[in-house]
Amino acid sequence: MIGTIAVHEAGGGRERVITHHELVLLRTMSASNWSVPETEVLAAAREVLEADRPAALATVVDVRGSAYRRPGAKMIIPEDGGGIGSVTAGCLEEDVRSLATDVLAAGEPRVETFDLMGDDDVWGLGVGCNGVIDILIEPLSEQYRPVLSAFAAGNNIAVCTVLDSTDRAQSIQDGAVYLGDRAYCEPAPATFDRVSGAWPDWLVRAVREPAETLASRGKAETVTVERKASDGSENTEHATVFIDGVAAPPELFVFGTGHDVEPVCELRKMRTFA
Fold it and tell me: Which part of the chain is the XdhC- CoxI domain (predicted)?
């Protein structure tokens, strides 16, 4: 092998050498890929914000059954058309674009559930687009800037977004959160920043530990937490929160000047490498 590829994960993680066979395989996969790496989606989000262009952010928040994309998959949808990233393998993108137009017009987030399970497939395990998918669609705003800054700086961060909570009519003495309210959690140094909504302390305590774990792993998960109501009644207060861990991208070092170097550098653009 003329060129050697060393992959070093941010934060002092493991290193390994990619073989020529793996390189060819990855290049073939990327050439026919229907998505782009998270680095490109976040770069598009930064460009949209810096250009002050209206756009929506669509994120897969839950999947039951079979789906090509898992929770955390994102798509940026500018108001003037197009889109970067994907939330399925093409099954729902047009529907999501249409809903994004409504979301931008209203200026409010929404969670849309798409049931793609066939009548004869009880568990949704037949094909990739054959499950139940929940997608959060929201206006992309400056509230998302901390994610972009952390990612660019090589820091892990978790985006905590409320999907559902105790009814507005109920009395909650120490705070309340509603759909779209957001907080950010960084594991090192440990911080939890309430960006929008009156996040009660009990909810912060409940989501902080899983948020730190998911941030470090770059994984996403929806959690539901509850406690007895603070008004002394038998009611319960609850909240469903989507925790999207955005891990710092691994660094790619290329050694050598052989013919393998150029395709490796192209590969770097297609995959999630810093």
Answer: 49-115
What sign for the dihedral angle of Cα 225, 228, 230, 231? positive
Q: What value, to the nearest 5°, has the Cα angle with vertex 51 and ends 147 and 69?
A: 45
User: If pLDDT is split at 50, 70 and 90, which confidence band does 115 have?
Assistant: confident
What's the pTM value of the predicted model, to 2 decimals?
0.74
pLDDT tens track for 144-183: 999 999 998 889 999 999 998 875 444 444 567 889 999 9
Q: What b-and-e string marks burial along 231-244, b requiring 16 or more CB atoms within 10 Å of the CB? A: eeeeeebebbbbbb
Evaluate whether 38 touches 57 at the Cβ level (below 8 Å).
no
- Which amino acid, residue 270? M
Dihedral, CA of residue 200, residue 111, residue 108 and residue 103, to nearest 10: 160
Beta bridge partners of 135: 60, 112
Residue labelled with tokens 């800054």: 149
Q: Nearest to residue 187, comparing CAs of 158, 160, 207, 161?
A: 158
